[in-house]
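Example record

The entry below shows one chain as it appears in the dataset: sequence first, then C-alpha cells.
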Amino acid sequence: MNRMVLGAFALCTVMGAGTLHAQRTAQQQAYEQKRAELTRELEDSQKRLAELRGQRVELATRIENVIAKMLEERARALLMTNEQNALQELDAILTSSQDNLLAQRDRFNALGDVVRRRGGAVLVVLLRADSSTSNQLLGQVTLQIDREQVATRAYTVTSNNALSLGAVDPLYRSNVLPTAHTINLSATIDGRPLTSSLDVTAAGAAVTYVQFAVRNGQIVHTTWTSRGTTPF
C-alpha cells in the first residue's frame, strides 16, 4: 500500500513539473514573439524615416534649383522691367519656398518623435555597496541582460574602498525595446559566489533604473523610472 501511495505521489510530482515547464515555455515563446514584433515595428519606422529623409533632401535640392533658376530669370528681367517690382516678386517666391521647407521640417520632426516614442526606452543598471558595512569584499561581477553578457568587473581593494564610501558603478546603459527584460547579476562576495535575478519592464520614452546593492554579504536590488536623464 505504501509503495502505491509513493508511486502516485511521484507521478503527480512529474506531471506538475511537466505542466510548469510547459507554462514557462509558453511564456518564453510569447515574450520572444512580442519582442520580434516590436523589433520589426521599430525597423519599419526607421526605414520609413530614412526614406522620408531622402525625399526631404531631394525636395530641398529641387527647391534650390527652382530658386536658382528663378533668380537667374528675375535677374534678366530686372534689365527690362521695373527693378522694385521684380525684387518684390522675388521676395515673395523666396518666402513661399521658405514656408514649404519649414512645413517639411515640421513633418520630419513629427515622424522622428514617433520613432523615438516607439524605441525611446533606456535601461540603466547600477552597482553600489552598503557604506555601513566596510568588511565585505566584492570580487568578480558579471551582468547578463536577456541571457546575454553585457558587462564584467573585477574589483580591487581600491575600488572596494570607493564603493564602501558611497561610489556607484554604472554597469550598463543602453536603448532597449519598451518591453520586459531579464537581468542577472553574478558576483563574488568574500569569496562566495552569489546571484541576483529579476524581470523589469522598460517604459517607453523614459529611463528605467535597476540598482544592485551589496549589503551584509548579500545582493539586493531596487528599480525606479525617470523621465529625465539622471536617477534623482
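Notes for this example: The mean pLDDT is 81. The chain is about 55% helix and 30% strand.
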